[in-house]
User: What shape does this take?
Amino acid sequence: MHRDGAVACAVASETSAAMVIATDTSPAAVALACANARTLGLDVTVLAGDLLDPVPTDLRGRVDVLVCNPPYLAADELAGLEPEVAGWDPPTALVAGPNGNEVADRLVAQAADWLAPGGWLLLEVDPSRAPAVVAAMRGAGLVDATIVADLTGAARFPVARRRGGG
Assistant: This one.
C-alpha cells in the first residue's frame, strides 16, 4: 500500500457504506488519502492518528466492518524486500516492530469494543503471520476467525467477527 487511502476509497466506491473513516499516523498519507478521495468524488473521512484513536468514541460498538492493511514486517525483514516494495513504501508503512505483529495485535485487541454485534474485522498481513493473527482474534473473543487467500492464492487475510448480530 502506498498509504494513499486506496482501501478506504475502494470500500467507499464498492459498497453502500453509510460512513467510511480512514486513519493513518502519517500527515502526508492523510493529506494524500483526502486528495484521492476528493478526486474520486468519494465520501471518505480521513483522520490523523493511530488505529482507532482518532475515531469518534460515539462509534464504539457500532462499526460494521473494520478493514486494515497494517505494517506487518519485523524490523530485520526490511532489508530482504523486493526493491519495488522497499524503495516505494516508507518503512513506517511496512515495519510493525520487532516481531511484525505489533500493529495487528493492537487492533485485534481493540476490535471487539468497536465492532457492532456481528461486525467483521479484516486484516491484510504477511501470509506467514496470518495464523498468529487468527489465534489472536480467537483469543480476543472474536468468532468465525479464518484466513482468506488473495487473488494470487496467498493466505494473507485473517478475518473474524464479533459474536451476535443477525
